[in-house]
Prior knowledge:
By secondary structure, the protein is α+β, with helices and mostly antiparallel strands.
Amino acid sequence: MSIVICIEAQAQVTFESNNARLDSAFAWAKKKALSFSHDGSDAVGYWYEAALPQREAFCMRDVSHQAIGAAIVGLNKHNLNMFQKFAENISAEKDYCSYWEINRHNKPAPVDYENDKDFWYNLPANFDVIYNAWRLYQWTGDKTYLQHPAFKKFYALSMDNYVEHWQLSYDKVTQRDRRAHSSNAKRFGASRGIPT
């Protein structure tokens, strides 16, 4: 089997092999992925759906895990915008968390958010965003991921205040109270700070 993958300016990825079924599957997958992208006409700007179906939203984990594939099919503007939205929304009021899921209206998705003290959050989220922003920088060479003030603030707060506040340092993580910071969370109390 021979395979040729061509990426020109990361916008027009093509795939050819001597297997027609494989070629067809790639064409279908690329078309399907692009069908979930939105061109910037929504309040949130450029984005693609990366959450449970029908939410018209994107969540930190799913965006992080889909970002390189999205870059391959030419969604670099979308990636940068979504990662920047997560970076911009970190705050002490939310226990150094960001919005777990943001919808097309540029608001936290109501299914996961009541207020700044009561919302769904997975603790690896900040680290997922940091790691995958780094990967996107390596893939694209876009220094915005390193130099923009919102990203720099997000990285600093995540690697210092967030780790301390949620007791995630190597010497505390195995003994921490899983229910930390959930006393004011009436709707999402049991789902705040979950480790998955």
